[in-house]
Amino acid sequence: MATIVFCTANRTAQTTARRCLTTHLTGLASARESHLPFSSTHSHSVTLLPGTRWFSRGTGVRFMSHGTAGRSAAGRTRRGALALSGAAAVTAAAAVAGFLANANHFQRAEMATRVSQAAEEEEQEGDILARCRRFMSPPVTDTSVLQQRKMEMRTRMEMLIMETQADFCRALQEVDGGTFKVDRWDRKEGGGGISCVMQDGKVFEKAGVNVSVVFGNLTEEAAKQMRSRGKVLKGKDGKLPFCAMGVSSVIHPKNPHIPTVHFNYRYFEVEEEDGTKQWWFGGGTDLTPVYINKEDAFHFHNTLKEACDKHHPQYYPDFKKWCDRYFYIRHRGETRGIGGIFFDDLDSPSQEEAFNFVKSCARTVVPCYLPIVYKHLNDSFTDEEKDWQQVRRGRYVEFNLVYDRGVKFGLATPGSRIESILMSLPLTARWEYMHEPAKGTIEAEMLEVLRNPKDWV
């Protein structure tokens, strides 16, 4: 469970900032003495507080202010990083002043991602009712039923997705200042869901975090879709009882320098004619920036990699490639964004181990995204940059409506709630005829990355 912690003591923040900058400058001096080249391919981890880290790329340190100066067209080619190289002695004093002025801002961004070990232990042993009090809404399944089958996987997964929804919504509310509309809905065929949506906020144009827990009998169309992925499903009298649950989110920020993020983690059970159950997990987290930022890409992918590496060294490289293949707009010849991880039909090595992996992934959604939001919170932008964001959103819509497996499953399932399924679409988007960015622009650089996916870690 991610815990939001904010440090308000100026002296503590300033001390941390001084240590951080001193550590970074010391590292630069040591590297020069050792004749080690510093380039954008080197990453450095600086400890801020126990359990948190701040990543910088190469020699770049980002200093953020609440009064970001406007950019000229020429200045749009590279943003934000103040390079501490060459005349570091001359710039150090100004850098310290700028860093201290924003110490609380850095503390806020980093501490928002801190994961409480105590809360994680509570997840293992905590009382169902006590945990439910922290949710955005009572769970879909009645708490008495959850209490009775506390140790069953469907209960444990429902608790995890409810907690993920609550953690992410509260983190987004903190940065935006707005509140989520909590909308409960029932499905007459069985189950229901909880949609949390914030529209026209200060930071987010549209932010949605949905939970659904549905059950009943699979339609032939849904079963056919599963069989096409290699599932052998044998129903009784033509019926396949199923249970499906998951949490999904898509966040569309107003500022084109804050990326769109998507995540989805889900669990399926299907009962066959002999009473046995097939089960599997699926999901992933991916980032869709409008403009490429290597620091952001590294932070996002490295956070996911660390979560994957706790379980298997091949998970990140395999699921990163899977993500690049899945979020691919074939008719455009480009990926939807810069990826992340994606997996489906995960039913090994055991149910317990697969669930623990999904839990680790779900708990990265705040730490992999919120620092990026805070970092670009006050970036200025031009009308041209906003137009490019609208074009990129159009591509996002194309993928979701044409290729996304979750949208297809939802539309093929009787009683599904269309408002929740289409929550992933932005409020506004744009389709310009034969649009192609001019060569040499940062928009063209973004498109090149989408046409040729990169390894960010």
UniProtKB/TrEMBL annotation:
Residue spans crossing the bilayer: 81-101
InterPro entries per the UniProt record, alphabetical: Coprogen_oxidase_aer, Coprogen_oxidase_aer_sf, Coprogen_oxidase_CS
Pathway linked to the protein: Porphyrin-containing compound metabolism; protoporphyrin-IX biosynthesis; protoporphyrinogen-IX from coproporphyrinogen-III (O2 route): step 1/1
Annotated family: Belongs to the aerobic coproporphyrinogen-III oxidase family.
Keywords assigned: Heme biosynthesis, Membrane, Oxidoreductase, Porphyrin biosynthesis, Transmembrane, Transmembrane helix
Protein name per the record: Oxygen-dependent coproporphyrinogen-III oxidase, mitochondrial
Alphabetized SUPFAM superfamilies for the sequence: Coproporphyrinogen III oxidase
Annotated Pfam families: Coprogen_oxidas
GO biological process: protoporphyrinogen IX biosynthetic process
Catalytic activity: coproporphyrinogen III + O2 + 2 H(+) = protoporphyrinogen IX + 2 CO2 + 2 H2O
GO cellular component terms, semicolon-separated: cytoplasm
Entry keyword annotation includes RNA-binding: no
Tree of life domain: Eukaryota
Enzyme Commission code(s) on record: 1.3.3.3
NCBIfam families xrefs: PRK05330.1
GO-annotated molecular function: coproporphyrinogen oxidase activity
Self-association state and partner proteins as the record states: Homodimer.
Gene name in the database record: CPOX
